[in-house]
Amino acid sequence: MKSLVVKRSIVIDGHKTSVSVEEAFWKGLHEIAHERDMGVNRLIASIDRNRQFANLSSTIRLFVLEYYREREREREQAVSVAVEAVKSISLS
């Protein structure tokens, strides 16, 4: 069975290291970096500087998960606001 974890070499603040996370998390990192107009190495360096856990791979997974959770919360809130706006227009 092929491993879903992909190991990639990266540079964080001038130091070479490697990170192993699943392909879906690499894809998420690329999407987030693109949205923020930055490279993946720079995004990972930022994640590394702000991490609270020893394991960088786990920190990356949690970062990507929280990013998409927050995005979903924002989408749900926008839908709720739109529904309320439609209701108030219909009641007028």
In short:
With 92 residues, the protein is α+β, with helices and mostly antiparallel strands.
Structure, described:
- With about 90 residues, the chain is of the alpha+beta class.
- It has a domain at about 5-65: Ribbon-helix-helix fold (Orthogonal Bundle).
- It has three helices and two strands, in the order E-E-H-H-H.
- It has helices at about 25-35, 40-50, 55-90; strands spanning about 5-10, 15-20.
- It has a two-stranded antiparallel sheet.
- A hairpin with a 2-residue loop joins strand 1 (about 5-10) and strand 2.
- The longest helix is centred in the last third of the chain and has 36 residues, at about 55-90.
- It is elongated.
- The protein starts with a strand and ends with a helix.
- The mean pLDDT is about 90.
CATH topology (level 3) name of the domain at 5-65: Ribbon-helix-helix fold
Spatial order of the strands forming the largest sheet: 1-2
Assembly level? single chain
Fraction of residues in helices? 55-70%
Mean pLDDT: 90
Total beta-strand segments: 2
Set out the fold topology.
Layout: E1 5-12, E2 15-22, H1 23-35, H2 40-49, H3 56-91
Antiparallel strand pairs: 1-2
Helix pairs in contact: 1-2, 1-3
List keywords for this structure.
92 residues; alpha+beta; Ribbon-helix-helix fold; two-stranded antiparallel sheet; 3 helices; 2 strands; 17% strand
